[in-house]
C-alpha cells in the first residue's frame, strides 16, 4: 500500500469493493449502545446495508435520540431483551428477510447460541469460525488471522474447518491462492508442543487434497511467517514465509492477543466476520469502535456478495 496512505484512505479502500451492488438487508442484534447503533448506521450511510434493528424499541430510540443518531431507512423490530433479539434475528434470516447478521451490544455467547440452535439456527456442515481481515500499515497486503473469537482450544479436526473457512473467505476477497502460515512458537516439530504436530498434519492434509485452495506451511513462528528475511536468517525454505495471507493461530488466546496488539499498537484497521453459518455474521467486540464495525460490515457484505455470485453461477 502507498506509504503516504492515511487511515481514512485505508478504510475507504476496504469499503469500496462492497459498494458495487445493492445494499443488503442486515439484522442488527440488540444495538442498544452508541457504538453498535452508530456502526450499523454508518454502514447504512455508506450504502452497504439496510439495517433491521432488532431489540427493545424504546431503548434503541432512546440511544439514537441521546446521541443524535438518525434512524431513517431502518426497520425496527421490538423484542424484550437480547436473547429474544438473537432468536428473532436468526428467524429473519431463515424466512429470507435478512441476508446477514450484525452483532450489537450483547455477548457473543448469546448470539452464537441462537445461530447454532439445532432446530431453528443457521448450522451448516462446516464448523463456525471467526476471521479477522486486517489492514496493517507495515504489511504490503491484507492479513487474515483466525480464530480469535469462537473456537477456544481447537482440535486438529476443528483446525481443518477453521483453515478451510479462512481459505474460502480469502479467495472470495480476491486472493487467488492464499498462503497460509500455521503459527507456533518454533519452526521445528516438537512432540511436546501440540501446535507443531497439528501444523505438520495440516500441511500433509493439504498435500493430499483434504484441505483445498491454499498453500500451507508450518509450523512457523510469527516472524518467519511475515518476514522472508527472518526466515532466511534461520535457514528456513518456505513458500509462505514473507508471503502469508492467512495466519492460523494455535488457540483463541494467542490469536486474540495478536489481533489486539496489531490493532492497538500498529494502527491496524480490523474487520471481524464469523464464517461457516448459512450467512456471514458481522462479529465485533463490545469495546470496538464504530469504524471497526463499519469495516466489518463492508467485509461481510463483500463476502456475502461473493457467495451469492458463486451460487448464481452454479445454479
Structural class: alpha/beta
Cα distance, first to last residue?
37 Å
CATH architecture designation of the domain at 126-276 = 3-Layer(aba) Sandwich
Please give the share of residues in helix: 40-55%
**What global shape is seen?**
globular
**Total number of β-strand segments?**
11
What is the CATH fold-level name of the domain at 126-276? Isopropylmalate Dehydrogenase
Structure annotation, total helices: 11
Top CATH class of the domain at 126-276:
Alpha Beta
The CATH superfamily of the domain at 126-276 is identified as: Isopropylmalate Dehydrogenase
Q: Reading side by side through the largest sheet, how are the strands ordered?
A: 3-2-1-4-11-10-5-6-9-7-8
Our estimate of the beta-strand percent is 15-25%
SSE series: HEHEHEHEHEEHEHEHHEHEEH
Mean pLDDT: 93
Give the key terms.
single chain, 315 residues, alpha/beta, Isopropylmalate Dehydrogenase, eleven-stranded mixed sheet, 11 strands
Please tell me about this protein's structure.
This protein is an alpha/beta fold. It has a domain of 151 residues: Isopropylmalate Dehydrogenase, CATH 3.40.718. Helix content is 42%, strand content 17%. The chain is built from eleven helices and eleven strands. Strands 3-2-1-4-11-10-5-6-9-7-8 form an eleven-stranded mixed β-sheet, with helices on both faces. Helix 2 crosses helix 11. The longest helix has 25 residues. The model has no long low-confidence stretch (mean pLDDT 93).
Amino acid at each position: 500500500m502507498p506509504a503516504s496512505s492515511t487511515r481514512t484512505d485505508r478504510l475507504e479502500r476496504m469499503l469500496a469493493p462492497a459498494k458495487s451492488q445493492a445494499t443488503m438487508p442486515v439484522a442488527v442484534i440488540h444495538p442498544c449502545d452508541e457504538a453498535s447503533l452508530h456502526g450499523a448506521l454508518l454502514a447504512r450511510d455508506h450504502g452497504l446495508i439496510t439495517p433491521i434493528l432488532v431489540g427493545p424499541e424504546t431503548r434503541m430510540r432512546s440511544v439514537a435520540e441521546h446521541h443524535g443518531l438518525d434512524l431513517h431507512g431502518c426497520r425496527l423490530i421490538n423484542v424484550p431483551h437480547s436473547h429474544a433479539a438473537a432468536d428473532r434475528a436468526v428467524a429473519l434470516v431463515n424466512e429470507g428477510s435478512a441476508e446477514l447478521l450484525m452483532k450489537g451490544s450483547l455477548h457473543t455467547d448469546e448470539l452464537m447460541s441462537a445461530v447454532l440452535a439445532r432446530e431453528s439456527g443457521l448450522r451448516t456442515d462446516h464448523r463456525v469460525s471467526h476471521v479477522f481481515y486486517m489492514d496493517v500499515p507495515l504489511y504490503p497486503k491484507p492479513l487474515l488471522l483466525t480464530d480469535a473469537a469462537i473456537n477456544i482450544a481447537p482440535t486438529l479436526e476443528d483446525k481443518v474447518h477453521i483453515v478451510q473457512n479462512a481459505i474460502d473467505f480469502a479467495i472470495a476477497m480476491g486472493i487467488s491462492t492464499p498462503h497460509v502460515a500455521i503459527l507456533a512458537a518454533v519452526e521445528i516439530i516438537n512432540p511436546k508442543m501440540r501446535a507443531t504436530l497439528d501444523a505438520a498434519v495440516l500441511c500433509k492434509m493439504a498435500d493430499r487434497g483434504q484441505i483445498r485452495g491454499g498453500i500451507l506451511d508450518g509450523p512457523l513462528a510469527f516472524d518467519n511467517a511475515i518476514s522472508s528475511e527472518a526466515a532466511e536468517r534461520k535457514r528456513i525454505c518456505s513458500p509462505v514465509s514473507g508471503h502469508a495471507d492467512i495466519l492460523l493461530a494455535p488457540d483463541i488466546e494467542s490469536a486474540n492477543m495478536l489481533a489486539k496488539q496489531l490493532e492497538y499498537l500498529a494502527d491496524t484497521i480490523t474487520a471481524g466476520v464469523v464464517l461457516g453459518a448459512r450467512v456471514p455474521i458481522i462479529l465485533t467486540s463490545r469495546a470496538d469502535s464504530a469504524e471497526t464495525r463499519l469495516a466489518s460490515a463492508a467485509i461481510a457484505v463483500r463476502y456475502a456478495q461473493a457467495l451469492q455470485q458463486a451460487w448464481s453461477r452454479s445454479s
